[in-house]
Specification:
By secondary structure, this protein is of the alpha/beta class. It has 8 helices and 11 strands.
Length: about 260
Amino acid sequence: MDRIGVIGGTGLISIDIKGQHQDFLLSKNMSVVRIDDINAETEFGIVPLRCITIDYEGTPKELIFLQRHHNQGDANKPPHMINHKANIKALEASGCEIIVSVCSTGTMVKDFPPGKVALADQYIDFTGVSTSYNDTFAVFTSVTEPFSLELNSKLEVSLRESQNFSPSEKMYYTYWLAHGPHFETRAEVDAIERLGGEMVGMTMAREVKLANELNIPYSAICISSNWAAGREPGDPSAELSHEQVSSQANERLDPVIHSILSLLD
């Protein structure tokens, strides 16, 4: 891939490949040669993007980074107010061949404990909020397999290697889209699991819907940042803190960044 769109959020506040991942870059014969911050104008609004140009054995490659919570220079727009249409349209207009989203999720299953990094292969959206570019004319997009199977397969190889996982380690989970910005109740988490959800977040499913409408392959790297409400071992009444969730997620960025960079090979 020559140009990859990368969406960050609570699980990836910003992207500092040159500073934090220099050794990995060198091991892959890659180097950052240029970083440009631009504002992409779309019919749905202006979107700030960071364009990172990487030299890979003499060939220029690009990462186009988008912070989904962008808010006038900060990264604090609440999840229910995110302009997903503008965000995905900006990545399309930038010529991104694929989109890789990085998501912080709450987990309700024991084989996806906090700290593990895996992938989404399905989502469930019962929010009742429609997200589509097709608001005027009826266009029905198939999302039987909402995430790119080819892209997921490539990311899986790197994520397994970087986390020293065995071939039997489960790597795919179903993402449940919650309304936000409130965390869930214990009862809601119990219901989510009964209905097939394994991890819960507040944003990603809306992005993948739009990417499918634009025929852009999309994958979601999901960081298990916390036990969902009522699932904290030994303390089912434990309060959830956004600051703690973000901190835990951002401590697990090595496998995330390494897997994204591996797509440039």
